[in-house]
Design goal:
Blueprint (H helix, E strand, L loop, with lengths): L1 H20 L4 H15 L6 H17 L2 H11 L5 H12 L9 H14 L3 H10 L7 H25 L3 H11 L6 H13 L3 H14 L4 H13 L4 H25 L4 E2 L4 E4 L4 E3 L7 E7 L4 H17 L5 E7 L7 H8 L5 E3 L3 H4 L7 E5 L4 E7 L7 H14 L4
Parallel strand pairs: 4-5, 5-6
Antiparallel strand pairs: 1-8, 2-3, 2-6, 4-7, 7-8
Length: 403
């Protein structure tokens, strides 16, 4: 009898150890709980259900969990917000940590996103999304066009990955009728090059370089295609140098002509070092006010360039910088700034971005010595020459606007 007792005891102990060994990690527990939460509400999914779907789908894809992917996507497809759904599909299609087994599924998502942007529902839902942002009709139309171009560009890149160059080129033919960016033009050039359409490819690459004369990718693309067409190294160098020189001159002229005459709104803000600045303190210096957030990816890309710009002018008595965080959680700001070693002075925006009518971040304003907003800049393009552009603005205002 004792023999059987000890045998049962050993089996129970072994099972207990196995259970502890197989216990879920905290990350896996959260992962499983999210999936369970979605499945529990699958009969009547709510907006919160779709929120959870969007938060867990990247993890599902990186894990290659095809069964959960199928179950969750069957629910998420019932989301009737075409704008939100197309943006989510596009984000997932761009995941770099996707499991190889999921590649075909992501291609399908990208294709579906590209189809959604062609519908009236997409326009309706993006309009509803921006309903409380006080955008003008032109600003709203710009959003629709740019998001559509971004999503269709992703799909074209998926087609290129499958060596389906002709349909990719057709997409780019259509995109550039209403929207152009350096990245899209370079992608278009590469698709044409894959079809051995070198002359057309070079023309598009030069347009990309004209748009962003500081783009290394555009320079490399022009050089490669020109070489394929048999140009000598001297000819290629001349082609690139002339394009860059001319493009910078035109860009500078256009940027400096796009001038505003808006008095700075009344405001008072406090810095991380407890320094207080108000609107009346701005006279006598050219002031750069830049709004950012620690969670904003484009802001994170812009801030190192802003730091370089600040170091260039920090000893210039005619120039002041106010870098204002729009973070609701202010405790995040100081550790973020210290982590990256930024030297520029940082302030808590504390809502003044609304007084400046900021509609997206990063947003910056360049203010003349009389306290008048003269130049604005919204967003960040990695292909732009940020420091050069800002230097143009600052130096122009140091001299003074010519009436």
């Amino acid at each position: 009898m004792k023999k059987y007792f000890w045998l049962v005891a050993i089996l129970v102990l072994t099972a207990s150890c196995a259970t502890r060994t197989e216990a879920l990690s905290p990350e896996d527990h959260v992962y499983q709980e999210k999936i369970s939460q979605i499945l529990r509400s699958q009969k009547n999914p709510t907006e919160q259900t779709f929120d959870v779907c969007e938060s867990v789908l990247p993890d599902i894809i990186s894990r290659g969990d095809t069964e959960s992917y199928r179950d969750i996507m069957n629910i998420y497809r019932r989301n009737d917000d075409s704008f939100r759904k197309s943006m989510t599909y596009n984000y997932l299609a761009n995941l770099t940590k996707a499991d190889e087994n999921m590649k075909d599924s992501l291609y399908t998502l990208s294709k579906k996103a590209a189809e959604l942007v062609e519908t009236d529902d997409f326009d309706r839902d993006i309009e509803a999304y921006y309903d409380d942002k006080n955008l003008t009709d032109d600003e709203l139309n710009d959003r629709i066009i740019s998001y559509s171009a971004m999503i269709r560009d992703t799909y074209a890149q998926m087609l290129i990955g499958k060596q389906r160059y002709t349909p990719a080129v057709k997409i780019y033919d259509d995109i550039i009728q209403s929207y152009r960016s350096t990245e899209i033009l370079i992608n278009y050039s590469r698709a044409l090059k894959a079809l051995n359409r070198y002359e057309a490819s070079l023309r598009i690459a030069i347009k990309a370089l004209n748009m962003s004369p500081g783009s290394t990718d555009a320079v490399l693309e022009v050089k490669e295609i020109a070489s394929l067409l048999g140009y000598s190294q001297a000819e290629i160098k001349y082609m690139v140098d002339e394009t860059v020189f001319s493009a910078r001159n035109v860009m500078r002229e256009n940027l400096l002509e796009d001038i505003y005459n808006i008095p700075v709104p009344e405001f008072t803000i406090t810095g991380l070092d407890s320094t207080i600045i108000s609107a009346r303190d701005l006279t006598g210096k050219v002031t750069v006010i830049s709004f950012f957030a620690t969670w904003c990816p484009p802001c994170r890309k812009e801030l190192p360039h802003m730091n370089n710009l600040y170091k260039k002018y920090k000893n210039d008595s005619e120039v002041r910088f106010i870098i204002a965080s729009t973070d609701k959680d202010e405790y995040l700001v100081r550790p973020f700034i210290e982590e990256y070693g930024y030297e520029f002075p940082v302030y808590y925006a504390d809502g003044i971005q609304r007084d400046f009518h900021v509609k997206g971040i990063p947003s910056l304003f360049v203010i003349d010595k009389q306290g008048v907003i003269r130049y604005k800049k919204v967003g960040f393009d990695p292909d732009e020459e940020f420091e050069k552009i800002m230097t143009w603005y600052i130096e122009e205002l140091k001299i003074g606007i010519k009436s």
